[in-house]
Hints:
mainly alpha
Amino acid sequence: MATDFDKRKILSALCHGAIFFSASVVSVGIPIAILLVSDDQVVKDNAKESLNFHFNVWLYGIIVAFLCLLLIGWLLVPILFLFNLILPILAIVKVLDDPYQVYHYPFIFRLLK
């Protein structure tokens, strides 16, 4: 039986790791489901932060796609890719290291508080 500590670590890491399924609806569905069913405030806050990151990745992707159509955005594609890869990995490492702390992504707009 998992303790609340282990449950918090797993659910928080799952929220942040969901971005790796970004080609599917499952990506945003995981943190939404966790937000709705969890009663742990730290897990809920990590789910909200993950959702905020999803919204930002989608927004930045739209902007970069538009700039690519104008032939000036091709240099931004690798930056967006690294942003989408490195920050969630860092978030997972941080929440596994200190499950009592909510991870806050840098460089994003927060729609959910």
